Amino acid sequence: MVGRFVLTCGILAPSISGFLGAATAWYFFEQPFLSALQTWLISDALGLLIFTPVFVAVFNGDMLRCMREKRWTERAETIGLLALIGLVAYLVFFIAHAPLLFVLFAPVMWITFRVGRLGTKISVMLIAIIGGCATLRGMGPIASFTQNHAQQAELFQLFLAVLLLTCLPVAADLSARRRFTEDVVKREKAMALLASTDSLTGLLSRSAFEAHVDKTLHDSSGS
Fold first, then answer.
1. Domain range for residue 29?
2. For the segment 156-167, what is each residue's pLDDT rounded down to a tens digit?
3. Residue 155: which residues within 8 A CB-CB, separation 6 or more?
4. Can you tell me the distance from the alpha carbon of 144 to that of 135, in angstroms, rounded to the nearest whole number?
5. Pairwise CA distance, residues 106 & 163, whole Å
6. Of 28, 98, 115, 144, whose CB neighbour count within 10 A is largest?
7. Which residues contact residue 41 at a Cβ distance below 8 angstroms, ignoring those fewer than 6 apart?
8. pLDDT, tens only, 21-33
9. Same domain assignment for residues 43 and 82
């Protein structure tokens, strides 16, 4: 699943749009084709990888469905973790004077384990927005490495790519394990129901009926 997503949004689609964008920049603005192609490829790939999953989750109802299925404590935890991500990103890009980009991996991985893929996607998007604003203003660890705006963009894109490709496979694996566990539980319940009922009438089988009677008598005698 992750491989197909990365192939489609990270390679195929950006290659098409990047070629068209680079050709336009070369023809109308006389920019070097290969340099423009590299810029367009990286920008389009990261834009699609970071923002597309979140927008899709919003429009197809996955985000709303995910929040509805959670208990209020889990919703509060999710909101709290996202707020933590935003706070840490703000401190790293706007406040800290040392290059502390590695600090962002811990809270993103934390929300990956607690919330899943959707939490990972939203977290990386928040970091991209906050970090992008800081870098454009010449602030943060990316801007401290170089004053060249093109190099700043490339370094920031590289960081986002590493962050995304580190956490997203973990989120996908956790989701697959969760689905597998839910399927096993459903199958066990179905097998237990099948073993305790008669396939023709749908009533309790003899052994299940006797067990139910024994339990009822035991509960009655105990009370």
1. 1-52
2. 888 888 888 888
3. 142, 145, 146
4. 9
5. 11
6. 115
7. 14, 15, 18
8. 657 666 666 667 6
9. no
